[in-house]
Each structure stands twice: as C-alpha cells, then as structure tokens.
From TrEMBL:
This is Putative 4-hydroxy-4-methyl-2-oxoglutarate aldolase. It catalyses: 4-hydroxy-4-methyl-2-oxoglutarate = 2 pyruvate; oxaloacetate + H(+) = pyruvate + CO2. Its cofactor is a divalent metal cation. Homotrimer. Catalyzes the aldol cleavage of 4-hydroxy-4-methyl-2-oxoglutarate (HMG) into 2 molecules of pyruvate. Also contains a secondary oxaloacetate (OAA) decarboxylase activity due to the common pyruvate enolate transition state formed following C-C bond cleavage in the retro-aldol and decarboxylation reactions. CDD domains: RraA_family. PANTHER family: 4-HYDROXY-4-METHYL-2-OXOGLUTARATE ALDOLASE 3-RELATED. Its EC number is 4.1.1.112, 4.1.3.17. InterPro entries: RraA/RraA-like, RraA/RraA-like_sf.
Length: 206
C-alpha cells in the first residue's frame, strides 16, 4: 500500500464525500458484510455479464496484492457471483477487498474469513460460467464510473470513488474539512449552552 492509499485509509468516507461535494459514492445498497471493514486502495476493475463470475476469477488471478477488485455485476441479484470459496481465493492472492454490484452467497462463511466484501445483496443461487468478462476497463459500479487505478475507499457508511488524477487534491481537501469539523466539535460540544450557541449561529437566530 502506498503512502497515498494509507492516508486515505485514515479518513472516513463521509469526509472524502464532503471533499467531493457529495458525488462519487456508490449506491447506498452496496454495504460491507461487517461494519468494521475499512479499505482504501487502487481499483482493479472487472465487468461481467449478469450472474456470471468467470471474469471475477480472472480478476482474482491477475490483480496485484493490495488491489481492490471492483466488479460491475450489472446490479443483478438473482444469482450469486461469489461465495466463500471464491472469496477465499481473493484473500489467498493478497487482494485487499472486493466490491460487487451484485449478489454473493455463503454469507456466514465469508464473514468467518474476515475478508472485506462489499455487495448489493445475497442470494442462494450459484453463478454461471459462460463468458470471460472484461478486466481493467472503465466500468460503472453502484452508479459511479470507476477506472482502473482509481482510489476506492469503503467503510461502514459505504463506498466512494476518488479519480486517480484528483487523488492528492481530494485528500488535502478532505483533511482540511476534517480539521474544521474537529474544531467545530471542540468549540460547540460539551454543554447545552454550547449546543444552543451553535444552533443560533447556523440558523441565524437573533
């Protein structure tokens, strides 16, 4: 993990969202299987036909350790494109996490692996294996454009995409916003009087 990715790992997705003016977050249905999961790294993109996981297997094989596999599964939730065995392969290959705009299965088995998985849904039915899919191409995942190498950050609140070319700028903006939020917290928290002071200031009360 590079120093840039490590610095993003230390920031909440909410702060990064503020720096991006509320854009570039994936659909709110895409959430981690455990709220404790936190990831930040480079996107290795995969596009698959709905319900087919051959492209995911290829992505797991070709991605570098530390990459985050980002899968455009077309939002299809009737067939799972990964279960505990497939997720274990990703873990063994050194990936940092997987984000799937689609469904998984074997939820308890995946949770037992303690490997970060973010997805839209779960189902029982297994995937098909008929088409190779596409790797390292621009995709749409959860309604957001993702290009290979973009910074992906995920936590309990969801997943956000930081375009690679703007990563340093967005990082600095997010850090500054977090500092201001901390200063506000210190200034106005701790008592009813301070809370009222803030409410009056923000609402323009006289």
């Amino acid at each position: 993990m590079s120093s840039l990715e490590e610095r993003f790992l230390g920031l909440p997705t909410t702060g990064i969202s503020d720096a991006l003016q509320g854009y570039n977050h994936m659909n709110t249905a895409i959430k981690p299987l455990k709220e404790t999961y936190k990831i930040a790294g480079r996107a290795f993109t995969v596009s698959i036909p709905a319900g087919d996981n051959t492209g995911i297997l290829r992505g797991i094989r070709d991605a570098k350790p530390g990459d985050i596999l980002v899968v455009d599964g077309k939002g299809y939730t009737e067939r799972a494109v990964a279960g505990d065995f497939v997720i274990s392969l990703a873990q063994n290959m050194g990936l940092q996490g997987i984000i799937i705009d689609g469904a998984i299965r074997d939820i308890q088995g995946i949770r037992d692996l303690d490997f970060p998985v973010f997805c839209r849904a779960s189902t029982i039915s297994a995937s098909a294996k008929a088409a190779p899919g596409e790797l390292q191409v621009p995709i749409s995942c959860g309604g957001v454009s993702v290009s290979p190498g973009d910074i992906i950050v995920g936590d309990a609140d969801g997943v956000i995409v930081v375009p690679a070319g703007k990563a340093e700028q967005i990082l600095q903006t997010a850090i500054e916003k977090m500092k201001k939020d901390q200063q506000r917290q210190e200034k106005y928290s701790g008592s009813k009087e301070k809370a009222l002071q803030y409410l009056h200031s923000i609402l323009g009360d006289k």
